[in-house]
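Page 37, continued from 36.
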């Protein structure tokens, strides 16, 4: 098993995240690193390799070389390795959760839950021998058609900062178990936890070159971030463009998702690129107030609002006064920190600034700030990046906070006259990730679930993540999803494989066995 550099350095909280290539941690050819900052304290906790095209060549070449032997194993053999990996993830879940808290800023229980949820996809991958058996049928008398699922080759997976383990685990176990080699590109903001996980995959028996980590293949990180903010994303990586990379999964912001999807399509590569979100909750007058108020607050403030499934807009049908009071009360009582039930940090200074600007602008535009999270930022200046839960009551649905992704613990509330008005607002969103209706009436639930435009719908559940074996993914053609299929479950199996069809006819007829000389062979 390779020794993870993160392990050596843990005591000093000085992590070095090198690339993980061909079963070894190696420094980047450039010798250059980016600092890693903890959002909890603002302190530098390590450094992450900045890769060059030469490093990428190296990783892709090793993956390509490892592919024939890995894909040549039976799916049962690969699933047996995944079973060992599952056990290692379970055994080290607490340690991994501590790393998630440190590098991402989640509270400890959220971090642990995210590791365990990531391991549920590993569990699903372990059951693939039962699920991808292929099929055989005698399609005409004497002619048999057999279909099997073959791996694609080298899959690159680019992931965001908000779930350092769980999001990589959406793709990696399924891609590996279906016989692909994977090069993971974690967010340069949170590379530590997956660096650790790489050593568990090796310990479980994943051969060198089959799973590799390329930490930050962008020498121009600062430059492209500026471009994204100004909506002019242009640069892309040689990792995605490499001719020996067959397919790419991406999870992150919409501008980059769109960029990656377009580049891959132009090169005839299979691509699935999940983007940002703006999720609407609709509370009907018959909602269970206790259940709804608790769930709404958990949805918008949990993980400091840095979830693509987080509630962002609450549409109150009717006055909704009582429900709003309860939401405000619960949000006001939340505390800051990384303990159970507390609201964790936001990822970095740029994020904190962006979130606060949305609150400032909404207030300047006439929204009422019912719960104000800005004082957390002032109270913690120089000690990490914090924004408290914020509830805005809008009178103008055109406010930016009502329709742009904020990605922080901010809930925009807007009162509507009817369910149809709520649906019209939700349906007009260019995103299409999640939506939820709060009601005690089955018929009302049915009406909304059929008319929401988002792809992942909740009934009295504000974070409606479809768990395994169901597939996770927003609406195709919206800013939440570019590309094909889904990122977990059977949608991911479909993404990671192509269907090989063999049609066979054998001309064995009476007497042919007698004529053939099978002596000594039967
Ligand atoms: P991001 O788009 O800034 O970065 C995502 C990944 O892409 C990172 O690894 C980053 O290094 C890389 N990247 C950034 N710019 C790139 C470029 N020009 N070319 C190639 N790679 C590039 O996103 P983020 O800030 O890390 O994550 C937050 C976003 O992710 C939010 O918009 C959130 O909604 C979204 N997200 C979506 C889902 C989903 O399932 N739809 C899940 C989680 C997060």
């Amino acid at each position: 098993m390779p020794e993870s550099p993160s392990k050596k350095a843990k005591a000093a909280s000085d992590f070095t995240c090198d690339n993980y290539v061909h079963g070894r941690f190696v420094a980047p050819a450039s010798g250059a690193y980016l600092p890693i900052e903890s959002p909890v304290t603002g302190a530098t906790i390590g450094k992450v390799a900045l890769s060059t095209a030469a490093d990428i060549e190296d990783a892709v070449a090793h993956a390509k070389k490892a592919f024939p032997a890995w894909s040549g194993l039976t799916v049962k053999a690969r699933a047996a390795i995944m079973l060992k990996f599952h056990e290692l993830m379970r055994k080290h879940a607490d340690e991994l959760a501590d790393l998630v808290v440190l590098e991402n800023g989640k509270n400890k229980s959220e971090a642990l839950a995210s590791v365990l949820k990531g391991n549920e996809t590993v569990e699903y991958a372990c059951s693939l021998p039962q699920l991808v058996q292929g099929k055989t049928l005698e399609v005409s008398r004497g002619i048999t058609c057999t279909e099997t699922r073959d791996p694609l080759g080298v899959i690159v997976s680019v992931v965001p900062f908000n779930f350092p383990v769980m999001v990589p685990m959406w793709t990696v176990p399924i891609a590996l178990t279906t016989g692909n080699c994977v090069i993971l590109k974690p967010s340069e903001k949170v590379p530590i936890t997956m660096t650790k996980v790489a050593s568990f995959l090796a310990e479980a028996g994943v051969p060198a070159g089959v799973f590799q980590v390329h930490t930050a293949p962008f020498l121009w990180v600062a430059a492209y971030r500026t471009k994204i903010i100004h909506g002019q994303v242009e640069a892309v990586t040689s990792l995605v463009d490499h001719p020996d990379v067959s397919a790419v999964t991406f999870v992150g912001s919409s501008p980059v998702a769109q960029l990656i999807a377009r580049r891959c399509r132009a090169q005839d590569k299979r691509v699935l690129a999940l983007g940002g979100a703006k999720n609407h909750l609709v509370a009907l007058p018959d909602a269970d107030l206790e259940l709804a108020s608790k769930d709404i607050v958990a949805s918008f403030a949990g993980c400091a609002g840095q979830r693509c499934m987080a509630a962002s807009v609450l549409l109150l049908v009717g006055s909704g006064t009582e429900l709003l009071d309860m939401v405000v009360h619960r949000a006001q009582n939340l505390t800051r920190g990384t303990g159970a039930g507390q609201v964790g940090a936001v990822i970095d200074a740029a994020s904190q600034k962006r979130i606060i600007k949305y609150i400032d602008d909404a207030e300047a535009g006439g929204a009422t700030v019912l719960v104000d999270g800005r004082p957390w930022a002032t109270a913690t200046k120089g000690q990490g990046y914090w924004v408290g839960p914020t509830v805005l009551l809008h009178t103008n649905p055109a406010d930016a906070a009502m329709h742009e992704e904020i990605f922080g613990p901010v809930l925009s509330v807007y009162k509507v006259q009817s369910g149809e008005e709520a649906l019209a607002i939700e349906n007009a969103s260019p995103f299409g990730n999640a939506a939820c209706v709060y009601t005690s009436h089955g018929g009302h639930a049915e009406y909304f679930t059929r008319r929401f435009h988002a792809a992942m719908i909740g009934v009295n559940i504000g974070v409606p993540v479809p768990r395994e074996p169901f597939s996770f993914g927003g609406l195709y053609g919206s800013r939440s999803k570019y590309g094909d299929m889904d990122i977990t479950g059977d949608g991911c199996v479909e993404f990671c494989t192509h269907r090989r069809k063999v049609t066979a006819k054998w001309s064995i007829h009476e007497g042919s066995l007698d004529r053939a000389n099978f002596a000594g062979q039967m």
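The first helix runs from residue 5 to 9. Flag for discussion at group meeting. The pocket of nicotinamide-adenine-dinucleotide is lined by residues 158-162, 167, 185, 187-188, 224, 233, 235-237, 251-253, 256, 274-277, 308, 405, 407, 433, 474, 480 (CB under 6 Å).
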